């Protein structure tokens, strides 16, 4: 390793980080990716003890099925073994029970099941399936509800409530809602929400300090052929790179009510469609083949202070595709290191972008920089792109 300048302290800082920091952060990310939350069980038997055993067996079985659906390419799901007691004993690392209730013969609960990431990867490798190891977000989510020609954004409208009540724990993409604030209204004008282009949404994302902004619009309509109410939904997301433009471009769809279905239930189904489609697009972009080898890339990073290193450490630590990091030169204003990762370079670049890091090929090699704009850039983008009246 080469030292550039008097950076023994910086070297010590890195010594604390490189091995334990990456592995600890990856363990936290694994706990989120390889877990299924909120499985509702309700079993009856001769005794409450037997009912509880049946319920927990059901929860682990359903959790395995949901984990496959969440992580594995749909066309490969059939290659994996079905749930069985011996398999689940090998795969399940923890079972957490909440909202537990029981009587003499009945047992009800919500159950969270955490799988051993290494054991699951081993099963995936033996089966040769494609799966994702990448999560995304948090993205800022702006729900727009249109009913009777009236647009609602920041009030507590039914569409916002439907998205808030959807299953967000078991998604690949994490979201948080835009609050009703001056900043939110300043960067989310009616003009912007109507267009919701990737570039416009990039401005919104920068304003909220996240990698992407999502506008989810639901419009109440009527299906005259079926004589039922319907929800037309549209998803806009940005900013998008050229590589993301095809798979993560704006999406839209329609959900038609069942006979006598209330609006609340219809919106809940539409919310599930929105989040499932976004997750499906993300998974398609991040699939890796189980057991594939690791790649190596040398990277230069501009570093101006110890604080810059702390930020870089925190952001790189949460990227599950990165398997190891070796420092080859440490100092200011440039340091160099090598990353070992799985997947391809495009997927690594995408994963880095979720951590607000930009990887670019330049004359001197691959350069890794922080991608958030300065406040001056935000003001310039806002002035150029955001016009019009505040939404409701």
From TrEMBL:
Region spans: Disordered: 368-392
Domain of life: Bacteria
Protein name as catalogued: DUF2066 domain-containing protein
Lineage: Bacteria, Pseudomonadati, Pseudomonadota, Alphaproteobacteria, Iodidimonadales
């Amino acid at each position: 390793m080469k030292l550039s300048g008097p950076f023994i302290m910086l070297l010590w800082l890195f010594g604390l980080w490189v091995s334990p920091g990456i592995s600890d952060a990856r363990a936290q990310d694994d706990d989120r990716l390889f877990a299924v939350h909120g499985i509702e069980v309700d079993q009856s038997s001769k005794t409450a003890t037997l009912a509880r055993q049946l319920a927990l067996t059901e929860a682990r079985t359903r959790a395995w099925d949901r984990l496959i659906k969440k992580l594995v390419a749909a066309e490969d799901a059939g290659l994996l073994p079905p749930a069985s007691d011996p398999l689940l004993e090998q795969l399940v690392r923890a079972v957490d029970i909440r909202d537990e209730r029981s009587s003499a013969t009945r047992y009800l609960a919500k159950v969270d099941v955490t799988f051993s990431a290494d054991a699951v990867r081993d099963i995936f490798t033996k089966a040769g399936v494609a799966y994702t190891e990448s999560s995304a977000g948090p993205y800022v989510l702006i729900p727009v509800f249109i009913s009777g020609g009236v647009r609602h954004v920041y009030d507590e409208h039914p569409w916002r409530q439907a998205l808030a009540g959807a299953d967000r724990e078991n998604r690949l993409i994490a979201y948080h809602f835009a609050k009703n604030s001056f900043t939110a209204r300043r960067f989310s004008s009616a003009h912007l929400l109507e267009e919701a282009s990737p570039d416009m949404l990039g401005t919104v994302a920068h304003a909220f300090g996240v990698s992407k902004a999502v506008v989810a619009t639901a419009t109440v309509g009527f299906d005259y052929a079926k004589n039922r109410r319907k929800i037309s939904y549209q998803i806009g997301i940005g900013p998008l790179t050229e590589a993301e433009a095809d798979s993560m471009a704006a999406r839209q769809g329609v959900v038609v009510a069942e006979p006598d279905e209330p609006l609340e239930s219809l919106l809940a189904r539409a919310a599930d469609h929105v989040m499932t489609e976004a997750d499906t697009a993300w998974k398609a972009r991040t699939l890796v083949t189980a057991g594939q080898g690791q790649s190596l890339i040398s990277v230069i990073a501009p570093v101006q202070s110890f604080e810059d290193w702390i930020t870089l450490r925190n952001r790189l630590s949460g990227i599950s595709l990165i398997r190891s990091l070796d420092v080859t030169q440490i100092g200011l204003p440039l340091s160099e290191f090598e990353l070992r990762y799985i997947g391809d370079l495009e997927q690594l670049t995408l994963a880095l972008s979720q951590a607000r890091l930009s990887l670019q090929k330049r004359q001197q090699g691959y350069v890794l920089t922080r991608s958030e704009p300065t406040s001056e850039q935000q003001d310039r983008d806002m002035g150029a792109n955001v016009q019009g009246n505040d939404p409701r």
